[in-house]
Structure formats: C-alpha cells, structure tokens
Amino acid sequence: MEIKVLGCSGAEFPGYRPPSFLLNDKILFDTGSLTRLLEIEGQWRIKHIFITHSHLDHIMGIPFLADNLIFRKKRHRVNIFSIPPVIRVIRESLLDGSIWPDFTVIPDTHEGILNLIELKTGDSIKIDGYRITPYPVQHSVPATGYLVEDKKKRRFFYTGDTGPTDNTWIKMEGNQVHSLLIEVSFPNRMEEIALRTGHLTPRLLKKELLKMKPQPEKILVIHIKPQYFETIQSELRKLNIKNLRLLKDDQTIQV
Ligand SMILES: [Zn+2]
Ligand SMILES: [Zn+2]
Predict the structure, then answer these.
(1) Interatomic CA distance for residues 150 and 131, integer angstroms
(2) How far is the CA of 97 from the centre of ligand 2 (A)?
C-alpha cells in the first residue's frame, strides 16, 4: 500500500504540518494539512475520510475541503467516518454553523457535501478493496486508531494520538501489523506531561511495542513536536529498535 504523508508533525510551524495520511489518493486519515498540500484535483479525488479524534490538528481540514468542493460543477459527497463521540464533536462544535457554514446540509438538507458516518469500535468497513477497522486508543479525548488491510492481507495500523494503552493491543492481538504508524510527541524528560495529555515518549514507545503480539515489521514514528525533534530523534536512536524510522512531511511511503 502506498501512503502520501501530507503532514505528520505534532504541531504547526513553517515546514511542519499537522497529521494527514492519504491512501491510494482516495482515502484520507485525519485532515491536519489536507488543503495545504493537495491541489484542487487531489482534493476532488478524496471520497472517504477517517478521523482519529476531535482535536483541531486532526479535523481542521474538513471545513476548508467542503468549502473548496462546493464550487465544483460536478460534486460528490465526502464521507467522514469516526467513532460516535468524535462525530458528535464535529457535528456540534465544528459544523454547527457558528464558526463555518454547516456543510452537512449544504447544498441540500438531505444531500450535504459532508456525510458524517458513525463507526463501531472493532467493526470493519470495506472501501475500495480495503478493510478498515477502528480500535480504541488512549488519549485525553475519545480517540481511535485504524487498522487497514488490503486484498493481499497487508496491514498497517495508524494510532493517531495515543498514550500508553493495554486495551488496544489486547483487542488487536493476532493481527500481524506490517507497518505501525505510531506517535511519539515528547522527549523522555517530559514523560509526566505526555502521560497527562495522552501521548508517548521514546521510552513509553518501547514499552508499548513490547505489548504487541505479533511484533510489527516496520515502525514509523509520527506526531513529533518540532520543538523537540532532535532530542526525540536521538532518544529513539538509542533505543536500538529494528526497522524504526521517523516519517517526514511530504513523503510517499510503502506500508
Ligand atoms: Zn490529540
Ligand atoms: Zn495531534
């Protein structure tokens, strides 16, 4: 599977963009930098968006995408998938008509350009030959990761934002994850704030990996706070974990 990394940073600075991962040009995971990197034709190809949680760095592209697509002569609806508490926040806080038009009822009450769809944890949905399953992760707000499997049974798991969790790995046990896209937001010295805000440090990452059965083949680190990039990079190197690398914005990867 090929993923375009539109953004994978844990904060926004010049040269660092919030998380958005594009699978097969059509399926997007989180929307942090969706409309910043993709031209209109690229935006137009997106039909399905999976959101991990309601934090702004993951949902901010949704209103801009809708605003761009509404002016096309030929339109299609964009499906926004997530677990119910996340869909609720998108509906009630992002698209309630107060900070942006409510594109779930524009251009038509029954055929809004955005179609919000609730997913049940653990239940798979099939799209374009991919089987996508939400698994809960541990964050400061309700959050889910996504396990994605293609027709050849290759699998990647995208955690979104998460702190230490047993539940996720227990529920996913037995699924061979070929590529794990997992967050590390803070350096080791900030473990307390990482735990309080539902994030990982390099040391906490190592403990999480030990919980996974079987072990993932590739570990791709995302959501690093750019302020601590070099420290986190050197702390990760010292862990000596095989097949681990840090993802960068604007690269295309095979997973
Ligand atoms: Zn978050
Ligand atoms: Zn985030």
Answers:
(1) 6
(2) 24
- What is the number of alpha carbons within 13 Å of residue 183 lying toward its C-beta? 32
What pLDDT, in 10s, does the model give residues 79-130?
999 999 999 999 999 999 999 999 999 998 988 999 999 999 999 999 999 9
% of the chain at pLDDT higher than 70: 100
Q: Give 7's strand partners.
A: 20
Assess contact for 180 and 160: CB atoms under 8 A: no
CB atoms within 10 A of CB 138: 18
Q: How far is the CA of 75 from the centre of ligand 1 (A)?
A: 31
Q: At what angle do helices 229-239 and 202-211 cross, to 10 degrees?
A: 40
Residue pLDDT, tens place only, 22-69: 999 999 999 999 999 999 999 999 999 999 999 999 999 999 999 999
C-alpha 227 to ligand 2 mean position (Å): 15
Q: pTM for the complete prediction?
A: 0.97
Q: In this structure, what CATH number is given to the domain that contains residue 34? A: 3.60.15.10
